Amino acid sequence: MTNLDYLKMLVEDIHSTTVATIGTDGHPQTRTIDMMLWDEKGVYFLTAKGKAFYTQLMEQKYIALSATKNKKSVSLRGKVKNIGSEKLDEIFENNTYMQDIYPGDTRSALEVFQLYEAAGEYFDIREPARVVRDSIVIGNTETVENGYFVGNECIGCQLCYSVCPQKCIDISVKPVIIDQKRCLHCGRCAEICPKQTIEKRG
Q1: pTM strictly above 0.85
Q2: R_g over Cα of the chain
Q3: Residue 50 has what pLDDT?
């Protein structure tokens, strides 16, 4: 699947997300926010100008979000910007329940935000013995390698494979190779490696 496929899934299939900002007390604060639109430039949501969430978005210009449905999840962290009433009418057309929450011209209380530079991941455990993990990128964000990687000092002892819950390590080669799209990031391989050549990144 592509980045756009994941954004479409986030908006059209999962829709409701948990979004985190930093509260005035310096601690993380979360709330449920619906993702309303998506395109090649990012994901769009809205909030009322009178809310603390609005103030935090304007000041921090950054969010983390997480969403789960039917054992599939999407998480993203990145930059947001206020685009005012741009796309507001389109949001109400595509999300008709909003017309009952903010009827008529009361929608003027709302402004639209765009998540435009972000990185994160898709995680799917619908088949528990064969999980799927993938990276998601929006905009010009650099991808960061996450997970466990085997170094050249690997002796091919296969102990890592013996403790891997997903058996996602290719032991037919040396150094062995961890399939990053199936890895749970549990760290058992790194713990048991006699050469301590398995490195955690990200």
Answers
A1: yes
A2: 21
A3: 96
Q: What is the mean pLDDT of each run of 10 residues along the chain (202 residues)?
A: 96 98 96 98 97 98 98 97 97 96 96 97 95 94 84 97 97 96 96 97 86
Full 3-state SS string of the chain: CCHHHHHHHHHHHHCEEEEEEECCCCCEEEEEEECCEEECCEEEEEEECCCHHHHHHHHHCEEEEEEEECCEEEEEEEEEEEEECCCHHHHHHHCCHHHHHCCHHHHHHEEEEEEEEEEEEEEECCCCCCCEEEEEEECCCCCCCCEEEECCCCCCCCHHHHHCCCCCEECCCCCCEECCCCCCCCCHHHHHCCCCCEEEEC
For residue 183, what are its two tokens? 């890895």
Which among 143, 7, 149, 146 has a CA at the least distance from the CA of 75? Answer: 7
116-136 residue pLDDT tens: 999 999 999 999 999 999 999
Separation of alpha carbons 111 and 51, rounded Å = 11
Write out pLDDT tens, residues 35-44.
999 999 999 9
